[in-house]
Amino acid sequence: MKKNWLLLMIIPVVTHAQWTTKIKEVDSALSYLYQHQLFNGTVLIAEKGEPIYKKAFGIAGSSKQPLTTASAFNLASVSKQFFSMMVMMLKESGKLQYDDPVQKHLPSFPYPNITIRHLLNHTSGLVEYFELADRYRSLLDTLNNASMLALLAKCAPALEFTPGEKFVYCNTNYTTLASVIEKLSGMPCEQFLQQRIAIPLKLKNTYIYHLGMPSYPVSRVFGFHYEKGQPVADDLVWLDGIVGDGNVYSSAEDLLLWDQALYTGKLVKQSTFKEAITAGVLNDGRQTKYGFGWFIEKPGEETDHTGGWVAFRTYI
Question: Partner of 102 at 20 to 30 A CA spacing, among 43, 44, 180, 296?
Fold first, then answer.
């Protein structure tokens, strides 16, 4: 099955000769995969902020329009770092503190002991919203953040563990954060993203898109897979009126600008961002390997995140 891919890699320093060889190997491997319908996507590799390899392979959906490195893919879970950035901005403006109970900002949220930090770190104990929404699907049309919050308030499913007891990756954490962002900013998340992130960083193809919107930007890639050599739609589903855990779209080119901006103080103070790429701490003092929207592979050296939804696969 051929998937839509978006990859961004910021690479440690190696010699020019080493990179010449490695880039040839990367290009040869991707070309082979593309020719055998095993890869459809874009790849950008940068060293010290400068692209040393940038290439698009394949098409942007069943329309068969060719991909470019400016094509905007659904980032799936890579979207989470954009939402955590919005939370950081609200924290810096004094609208919230990480250890605030979520109930302080969303009174209908039924769990008094869950904090903003628990949501950011995936240590809340919340159940996965996919399962909850599917169980009560007859009550819902296209799921959105308001209907998800209302469903949590109505059903109040038991937590899977005491908040802060363990790390369990759960998308409900970030859909709830999106509701907090909208409540405290007084605007939809898509507007906040444009005003506070995309426009200041001059990101031309980075935006939120979900099924509640009447139209989509021209750079949007549509998910698909191949069946008998032909592209078949494999795109957004009834859950995709919701944001927070996914549904930020971006291009490989924009993601490089995004990554570089994180270390410059353009969006938030460096001390604020440093906390986002610091591993969370559990109730018993143990560290997780996750910050605020970033996996911490090597503290102080390497962070990353993957994403997967319908036909989209992303990695930064």
Answer: 296
Q: pLDDT digits over 253-266, tens only?
A: 999 999 999 999 99
3-state secondary structure string, the chain? CCCEEEEEEECCCCCHHHHHHHHHHHHHHHHHHHHCCCCEEEEEEEECCEEEEEEEECECCCCCCECCCCCEEECHHHHHHHHHHHHHHHHHCCCCCCCCEHHHHCCCCCCCCCEHHHHHHCCCCCCCHHHHHHHCHHHCCCCEHHHHHHHHHHHCCCCCCCCCCCCCCCCHHHHHHHHHHHHHHCCCHHHHHHHHHHHHHCCCCCEECCCCCCCCCCCECCCEEEECCEEEECCCCCCCECCCCCCEEECHHHHHHHHHHCCCCCCCCHHHHHHHCCCCECCCCCECCECCCCEEEECCCEEECEEEECCEEEEC
One-letter identity of residue 145: N
Are the beta carbons of 246 and 309 closer than 8 angstroms? yes
Residue 19 structure tokens: 């990179």
**Contact 19/12 with Cβ under 8 angstroms?**
no
Cβ(295)–Cβ(78) under 8 Å? no
31 is catalytic: no
Q: Active-site residue among 28, 63, 77, 124?
A: 77
The closest of 268, 295, 255, 292 to 10, measured between CA atoms, is 255
pLDDT tens for each residue of 220-241: 999 998 888 888 999 999 999 9
Dist CA 256 CA 215 (whole Å): 26
